[in-house]
Design goal:
alpha+beta; Alpha-Beta Plaits; 2 domains; five-stranded antiparallel β-sheet; four-stranded antiparallel β-sheet; globular; disordered C terminus
């Protein structure tokens, strides 16, 4: 069952946003889990069953300071949720962001949909609007490819869906090439560091994709993948905050139904 959590970590002292490198946020996720579960996931060479994102790192002046970290965490495999939630709520292990200790942990929101729900509530839309909240890139050959190519977007979603969902979707690359076209893009590219050294580039912004078919079964498959994207993220390094996606109908809310703002 895909789960999306809004998590706030209160720091013992303010730190600069530029110190909250995606690699450190990635490591923080593993430190919340029991050691054996952490090692099991970390050793997987294929697609990992989670994403974690500190959005401010990608869109604000890195010199600004924060005293708390608002994180978006998504879990794609059922077995992870109890370990992660217990680690946040009951975990007694001291957690750190870099050298700064975390004094308090809070889960502000939880949203979940079973894979059955994602299938059962599917419409047959022919237009998809993705809002890429954080820089996104794909692997093309030996290089990063920081452009919103529709086939790469849906191939990536298909791979993740078939990895974690018990309900497999079959659609070929050849079919995707015939079906998908860009309807409009409002994007920018940005360079940033996943680690203290080295640069990565990705695009962010809104991407509008049209589907050239009226076949209901094909449209249902694509709509399932579209709705899944806000849980799975898109592209490379989603476990470090890249490829964070929000959909037009998606609202990240607290337990009282209020939209979370920075």
């Amino acid at each position: 069952m895909p789960v999306k959590l809004g998590l706030i970590l209160h720091l013992e002292k303010p730190i600069k946003i530029k110190e909250v490198y995606p690699k450190r946020v990635h490591a923080l996720f593993f430190s919340i889990l029991p050691e054996d579960i952490s090692e099991k996931i970390h050793s997987q060479k294929s697609t990992k069953p989670f994403t974690i994102c500190f959005e401010k790192f990608f869109r604000e002046n890195g010199e600004n300071e924060v005293s708390k970290l608002k994180l978006k965490v998504t879990l794609l495999d059922d077995f992870l949720f109890p370990y992660f939630s217990q680690g946040v709520i009951l975990g007694e292990k001291k957690l750190y962001m870099g050298s700064t200790a975390i004094r308090k942990k809070e889960i502000l929101s939880i949203e979940h949909k079973s894979y059955e729900d994602l299938i059962g509530n599917t419409e047959e839309n022919r237009d998809f609007l993705f809002y890429f909240k954080t820089p996104t890139t794909f692997k093309k050959g030996s290089s990063d490819y920081p452009l919103p190519e529709p086939v790469l977007i849906f191939k990536n979603l298909l791979k993740k869906w078939n990895k974690f969902s018990p309900f497999k979707i079959e659609i070929s690359t050849k079919e995707l090439l015939k079906l998908l076209q860009i309807g409009g893009v409002w994007i920018k590219t940005r360079k940033f560091s996943l680690l203290p050294n080295g640069k990565t580039i990705g695009f962010y912004g809104r991407v509008f994709i049209n589907v050239r078919t009226e076949k209901k079964e094909t449209l249902r498959k694509l709509n399932i993948l579209f709705n899944f994207s806000s849980f799975s993220g898109i592209g490379r390094k989603t476990t470090m905050g890249m490829g964070n996606v929000e959909l037009p109908s998606s609202t990240f809310q607290d337990t009282n139904g209020k939209r979370l703002e920075d």
